[in-house]
Amino acid sequence: TSWDRPAVMGPSPYASGWFGRGGGSGGGSRYTTLNTEYLSKPARKQKSHIEATKSHQEGNQDFNIWYGKHRGENWSTNSLGTALAENRCVISTDAGRTKADDSTGKKSFFCIQFVRGKCARGPSCTWYHRPPTIADDGSASQTHDCFGRERHKTHKDDMGGAGSFESPSRTLYVGRLRTDKWGNEGELKEAISGQFGEFGEVEHVNLIPAKNIAFVRYRFRSGAEFGKEAMSNQTLGQDEVLNVKWAHDDPNPVAQEAIRRADADAAVAALEARGEGGGGGEH
């Protein structure tokens, strides 16, 4: 297959996944180690009270099969438009142990209000208040995201929501960047990688300055789901309000091959983390 990549799209993501990290980098293990630290303390209450307008239990309203959503579904952050989010999750201070971690034999989901920086329950919450680990990703459902929301056959028209179960959904589109506010592209890429990397292992950042956008690819799907909710309508510190949604697949055959091998790498690592892999260590 022949395909000419437009120059404005930047270089092909050769460093994605398997191509860039190579065997035994231990990138994902760092998050597992940090998780142990988080669980050594109770989760912090991010707000003093629960916002009634934000309370919503998926499934308590009619489900529209055609549109792939519940009637009146209000889990989306798109309602904020271009307004800056009022709250932000800071993993180092907010993450901690909740009732979900103390439950024996019962698997829970991750708290979507926590990752948005506004869970008022703290240690009494029945959902996890920490980033997903490799082991969490290995046991993740293909039909639900890490927050328990149903994934659907295809992405929503606006590329928001929980994503598609026919795609690994590990790449985020990040729009409304202010490239003019940064000294150079390297500084901006470092900021993107660092701030999105707070919520999961980032394997590649493809910055396209001419369009003020970037594509952030996580190693694991649950990390991408976590990062998407955490960074939607947030700022990198230069007055931007980020537009974060699922990215369309890169049509470049080289990128497609990199993605295929990275997907396989992530699957093997996740299986090994839950004791079902045939190899040893990370890939």
Automatic annotation (TrEMBL):
SUPFAM superfamilies: RNA-binding domain, RBD. GO terms for cellular component: Prp19 complex; U2-type catalytic step 1 spliceosome; U2-type catalytic step 2 spliceosome. Its main location: nucleus. A zinc finger (C3H1-type) spans 105-132. Keywords: Metal-binding, mRNA processing, mRNA splicing, Nucleus, RNA-binding, Spliceosome, Zinc, Zinc-finger. Residues 105-132 form the C3H1-type domain. Transmembrane segments: none annotated. InterPro entries: Cwc2/Slt11, Cwc2_RRM, Nucleotide-bd_a/b_plait_sf, RBD_domain_sf, RRM_dom, Torus, Znf_CCCH. GO terms for molecular function: pre-mRNA binding; U6 snRNA binding; zinc ion binding. GO terms for biological process: mRNA processing; RNA splicing. Residues 170-249 form the RRM domain. It is found in: Nucleus. It comes from the Eukaryota. PROSITE patterns: RRM, ZF_C3H1. PANTHER family: PRE-MRNA-SPLICING FACTOR CWC2, PRE-MRNA-SPLICING FACTOR RBM22. Belongs to the RRM CWC2 family. This is Pre-mRNA-splicing factor cwc2. The lineage of its organism: Eukaryota, Sar, Stramenopiles, Ochrophyta, Bolidophyceae.
